[in-house]
From TrEMBL, chain A:
Organism annotation: Lentilactobacillus parakefiri
Family membership noted in the UniProt record: Belongs to the ThrE exporter (TC 2.A.79) family.
GO cellular component terms, A-Z: plasma membrane
Biological processes per GO annotation: succinate transport
Keywords annotated in UniProt: Cell membrane, Membrane, Transmembrane, Transmembrane helix
Protein name as it appears in the record: Membrane protein
Cellular localisation: Cell membrane
Threonine/serine exporter-like N-terminal domain span: 18-255
TM annotation in the entry: 123-142, 148-165, 177-196, 236-255
Major localisation: membrane
Coiled coil: none
Membrane topology qualifier: Multi-pass membrane protein
From TrEMBL, chain B:
Main location: membrane
Subcellular location: Cell membrane
Source organism of the structure: Lentilactobacillus parakefiri
Record's protein name: Membrane protein
Any single GO CC term annotated in Swiss-Prot or TrEMBL for this entry: plasma membrane
Keyword Transmembrane helix recorded: yes
Length: 256, 151
């Protein structure tokens, strides 16, 4: 009898742990909050915790099981990046769990090893993507065909700088600032060297991969769904990013 | 006219490029490009016929919201995967840059003109998203009501 009770308690702990882990991965990868709450509650309900409650913010998750024996669990979130494939993967696992294709042990195991399960694009492909965004948007925004290739290259350099600084400096705003300086400086130098035509257009294009589009979208969505903690917090995140980019451009314009 | 087609292709590739940066799943990349192209075509059509900046961006945002929900349903993936790349060609990059530049150069009057344009565009896109979300909520409600409230 006591053995069954202990086993049930262990099981409930495991469910709670899995829920917090899933939520943490989703917030760290840049999902919106309503989806995080929805996924966590769905897992808990499918696992049999009917009265579970969750309180998720941008920097941490608090979750209680609603059962007497298991208390609550806290998960803290220190860094946030953008990795849409992880969001999709957690979503997929949660669907598979709801359909009873995997059990809670497999689910938790997959979540713990999500870094091995989810492939990220290699650096050269990411850099190529940044170049694509930069080059094409110069044509779309400014009707400027001749500057396509130079913007492509400047955008690639800007993203590479941002990527490597993100590894060595843990502050995202600082790496955004320095990447903006590099993009603007390269644009101004390339025009002086006769490679580009209009420096302004090249800077606009080269900045586009760094512009905080996802935080801005998420800020609006979170605020609209009634999450008054995470919505404004994300808005501030986007605002600081935009300011960092702006200061970077301003400094480069001043010195070059 | 040929510039228009070049721009269409460019918008498609900008969606894919942004997908590569934010690590979209492989099978979502092509769709993300198509979402971006659709929303930009709506934006382009409106801004060159009857609408101003506000209307064009509003309907662009609305298109992204609606299309991404439909595709998310078909592909069984979260809808955020498709509306982030779709947003890229609508972002007021040029105006934002001109704001910063004119602030740096000391032309505050010009800078504030561009700044108000940025705020106006961003607000319109956000409003488009809101309305798309609202339409989606109503659609789900209608589905449940027609099924007789059983969830």
């Amino acid at each position: 009898m006591a053995d069954t009770a202990t086993r049930q308690e262990n099981y409930n702990h495991l469910v709670l742990n899995t829920c917090v882990l899933a939520g943490r991965i989703m917030i760290e990868s840049g999902s919106e909050m309503s989806r995080v709450n929805d996924t966590i509650m769905r897992i808990a309900r499918n696992a049999g915790l009917k009265d579970a409650q969750v309180y998720a913010t941008l920097t941490g998750i608090i979750m209680s099981g609603g059962v007497k024996e298991v208390g609550a669990e806290v998960g803290s979130i220190d860094k946030r990046a953008f990795d849409m494939e992880k969001v999709a993967k957690v979503n997929e696992l949660s669907r598979a769990y709801a359909a009873k294709k995997i059990d809670i042990y497999e689910f938790r195991d997959d979540l713990v090893h999500i870094d091995d399960l989810v492939a990220t694009f290699p650096l050269w492909l990411q850099t190529l993507g940044a170049g694509l965004v930069s080059g094409t948007l110069v044509v779309v925004f400014q009707n400027n065909l001749p500057d396509f290739w130079i913007t492509f290259i400047v955008g690639m350099f800007g993203w590479a700088v941002y990527y490597f600084l993100n590894i060595y400096i843990q502050i995202r705003f600082l790496s955004e600032f320095l990447a903006a300086v590099v993009v603007s400086a390269l644009a101004l130098i390339s025009v002086k060297a006769g490679l580009g035509v209009r420096a302004d257009d090249i800077i606009i294009g080269g900045m586009m991969p760094l512009v905080p589009g996802i935080p801005l979208t998420n800020a609006v969505r979170d605020a609209l769904s009634g999450n008054l903690i995470s919505g404004p917090a994300r808005g501030i995140e986007a605002l600081i990013s935009a300011c960092a980019l702006g200061f970077g451009v301003a400094i480069a314009l001043h010195f070059f | 006219m040929s510039l228009f087609f070049i721009k269409c292709i460019c918008v498609y590739f900008s969606g894919i490029g942004f997908g590569l940066i934010v690590n979209l799943p492989h099978r979502a990349l092509n769709v993300a490009g198509i979402t971006a192209t659709l929303s930009w075509l709506v934006y382009y059509g409106i801004i060159n016929t009857w609408g101003g900046l506000g209307a064009a961006n509003f309907f662009g945002g609305l298109t992204i919201g609606l299309v991404s929900v439909v595709i998310a349903h078909l592909k069984k993936m979260p809808s955020i995967l498709f509306d982030v790349p779709g947003l890229v060609p609508l972002v007021p990059g040029g105006q934002a840059y001109n704001t910063i530049k004119n602030f740096a150069l000391g032309d505050y009057q010009v800078a504030f003109n561009y700044l108000s344009e940025v705020v106006w565009i961003a607000g319109s896109i956000a409003l488009g998203f809101i309305v798309a979300e609202l339409i989606n909520k109503i659609r789900i409600k209608i589905k449940y009501v027609s099924r007789g409230w059983d969830k």
